Amino acid sequence: MKEVKELLIEAKDEISSANDMASLNNIRIKYLGKKGLVTLEMKKLKKLPQEEKPKFGAVINKVRNEIEKLLNEKMEEIRKNEKIKKFEKIRVDVTLPGAKRDKGHLHILTKVQRELEDIFISMGFEVVEGPEVEDTWHNFDALNTPEWHPARDAQDSFYFDEKTLLRTHTSPIQIRTMLEKKPPLAIISPGRVFRRDYDSTHLPMFTQMEGLYVDKNVTVRHLKYTLEEMARRVFGESAKVRLKPSFFPFTEPSYEVDVWFQGNWLEILGAGMVDPNVFRNVGYDPETWSGFAFGLGLERIAMVKYGIKDIRDFIRNDVRFLENY
Ligand code: FA5
């Protein structure tokens, strides 16, 4: 009896100092296995006199159950610890700073385009768009630009075939709009245009915004006021606008328009009163209708406003440039 109770104390000791499954298993075999110490005690039971059997049996059973219980508890504990260790290994510290990603922003040209759209929309203009691949009729003929005009030269434009080209300006939108709508109308049309140009103030692909206003009794004063209002909103209250006489086949009279900004006159657009021939080409009666049109270069406006010296910076995609604006 004493021996059996000592077995329990020994087993308890061993179990509490075990700290992995393998040693627990060995302990189980040592005490409860087929040839285990407790099992051997049980076998002794048979040899005992009848009257001692129940008492001894009860003690052995108790010891066996106790060891079993201790083993199971320890097993549970080890399992738990192993789980914690595993999680510890793959643990993610959510308070660590993450991989930093730079946030993009709109390109300076898109910003200038949207700013101008907002200004003209607030004055009652509607935004329309048109195709970048144009035919010579919309791009030139309908705009009163005859065959001999230098703008039609293959040296100046990108042709697909004799009658198809990349539009050289947004003015064909005037034609497309007037063929579709009845006057009065007021539209602006931003978009890419293409020419065989390339230097610090000229790109082969650049952005224009066309403006067209057709109504009764439209005069140069309406044109000048509209452009002055635009200039004040883009460049500030002190901005001034100057019209210089110029020539475009589709306007009469025609102007080149400069703005006064930070001490300089800078040319930003071409404009004029819609030529009666253009009205005739789209079926408007020039005796009834009058209008003004303008075509401004968005890159040039951005250059003036932000002091950008080389127009090619817009398309170089150098982040150091892009991040500035
Ligand atoms: C025209 O394109 C006319 N269609 C403008 C117009 C519209 C006149 C309606 C009258 C009525 P021009 O070729 O001058 O005109 O170009 C207009 C503006 O586009 C210029 O003032 C300039 O700001 C810009 N521009 C012209 N060529 C380039 C280029 N290669 N790169 C960047 N900007 C350019």
From TrEMBL:
Quaternary structure annotation from Swiss-Prot or TrEMBL: Tetramer of two alpha and two beta subunits.
Q: How is the cofactor bound?
A: Binds 2 magnesium ions per tetramer.
Which organism encodes this protein? Thermosipho affectus
Q: What is this protein called?
A: Phenylalanine--tRNA ligase alpha subunit
Q: Subcellular localization, per the record?
A: Cytoplasm
What SUPFAM superfamilies does its record include?
Class II aaRS and biotin synthetases (SSF55681), tRNA-binding arm (SSF46589)
Q: Which residues form the Aminoacyl-transfer RNA synthetases class-II family profile domain?
A: 106-304
Task: Tell me which NCBIfam families the record gives.
Answer: pheS
Q: Which UniProt keywords apply?
A: Aminoacyl-tRNA synthetase, ATP-binding, Cytoplasm, Ligase, Magnesium, Metal-binding, Nucleotide-binding, Protein biosynthesis
> Hey, which family's this protein in?
Belongs to the class-II aminoacyl-tRNA synthetase family. Phe-tRNA synthetase alpha subunit type 1 subfamily.
- Top-level taxon of origin: Bacteria
- Record has ATP-binding as a keyword: yes
